[in-house]
Amino acid sequence: MLSLLLYTTCRMLWPDVGSTSETVMALIGLIAVLVWGKGLRGGAALWLLLMAVAVQALSWWLGYLHHPQWVADNPQVDRLAKLFIFIAVAWWLGGSTRNTLLVWCLAVIGLILSSVVQGDGLNEWLQGFDGQRVGFGVRNGQHGAMLFGVALLGLAIFTPRFFAHGRWRALRIVGWSVLLGLSVIAVMIGQTRAVWLALSLSLPMVLVAWLVVRRQSGTSPVNRKLLAVCTTVLLLVLLGAGSVIKGPLLDRLNKESSVVSMLLAGNIDEVPYTSIGIRIHSWQAAFEWIEQRPLVGWGGQGRGLVMDHTEWLPERVSEKYGHLHNYFIEIWVAYGMLGLAVIGALAFWIGLATWRAWRAGALPGDLALFGGGFFIYWMVVNQFESYNSFWTGVYVHNLVVGGLITHYWRWQMMSKNEETA
């Protein structure tokens, strides 16, 4: 548990060190599961990992036969395998809800601290209020906003825990207010439209699901005082920050309205190479490559091949961008429909495991709700930026999924123990 806490802190504050610790922890965690994980060694997670490795190896081998000048010296199986680091995370958490929430909370605090110690620090926050788009020293504006979007989603869903009666209640409420306020502001000054869209879809859906479950289960009515406090805090932050930077926000929203109009009219070839335009044209180029090898793809270098060897893409675009701004298209180009099938199977299994653990009472309702909200959020943001291809996305994916799956595995082991008793 201590190693996981250290890893979470290092990953946010010192990405280079965190990257090394990520690999070390993944290897140690996998070895631990194989040695001591009786009943889990033959589980779906490890079979899916094996499938991911096999698909990448197959794509590389066929690519070596077809276009050896464009493939790497080795299969580079880490491209998909790194999405399974959650196996190690889930193992270290030990099925504990307390450990899960502690690590997630530490990740949010680490994110806040990293925004101060990296980049321009506090000055970057002030620049955001002046209308500049900021990235908080993480990678760029999109990745910083994405991380704060996840934090905002979690803080909103776990609000009742912060307000629950018990020790340190006043301190918990103050801490929640500060973290939520900073997350809202960060999402706004990050000026990433995909994050705004993802939150505008995931938060209402989470609220509807919460109300439906409460009604069906006959839970006590909604705490109106709690709802009023939360709404007031959100409105104050939104109105305060919005009044300061409303000009840049409106410009960001309206900036490419003409491009959207062209797309709706079907005039794709006339779309200029703006932020949205680059995505549209790179996706168009990607599908030209996908048509040639739809089943197995072009190997791990696929996204680079599209950007570097599509003749009609402007040179300035291919030189600046080496990826496709869409994770699922990148997987299709690299590993074909087999790669997409592995990713789809992984997502389905995670969803099913979360559902079963919640129905069995092993996973608290608010954690299950966060899992559902995160799935919607993650699906949306990865349509416009390939987060899972970068350390930021891998970090978030494994931290969240590990926290969910650890409860599922605990339920499985408890069920097997009861059967043998």
Report low-confidence residues grouped into runs of 5 or more: none
Strand proportion, as a percent range, falls in under 5%
Helix-strand category = mainly alpha
Kindly provide the radius of gyration, computed on alpha-carbon positions and rounded to a whole number of angstroms.
22 Å
Q: How large is the count of helical segments?
A: 19
General form: globular
Could you spell the SSE succession in H and E letters? HHHHHHHHHHHHHHHHHHH
Quantity of strands, as a count? 0
User: Could you describe the largest sheet, including whether it forms a barrel?
Assistant: none
Residue-averaged pLDDT, rounded?
A: 84
Helix content: over 70%
Q: Separation of termini?
A: 29 Å
How would you summarize this macromolecular structure in one to three sentences?
By secondary structure, the chain is an all-alpha fold. It has helices spanning 2-13, 15-36, 44-66, 78-81, 86-93, 97-117, 122-129, 141-157, 159-163, 169-189, 193-217, 224-254, 257-264, 275-292, 302-309, 315-320, 327-359, 365-381, 391-420.
Key terms:
421 residues; mainly alpha; 19 helices; globular
Write the layout of secondary structure elements.
Elements: H1 2-13, H2 15-36, H3 44-66, H4 78-81, H5 86-93, H6 97-117, H7 122-129, H8 141-157, H9 159-163, H10 169-189, H11 193-217, H12 224-254, H13 257-264, H14 275-292, H15 302-309, H16 315-320, H17 327-359, H18 365-381, H19 391-420
Helix pairs in contact: 1-2, 1-6, 2-5, 3-17, 5-19, 6-19, 8-10, 8-11, 8-18, 10-12, 11-18, 14-17, 17-18, 17-19
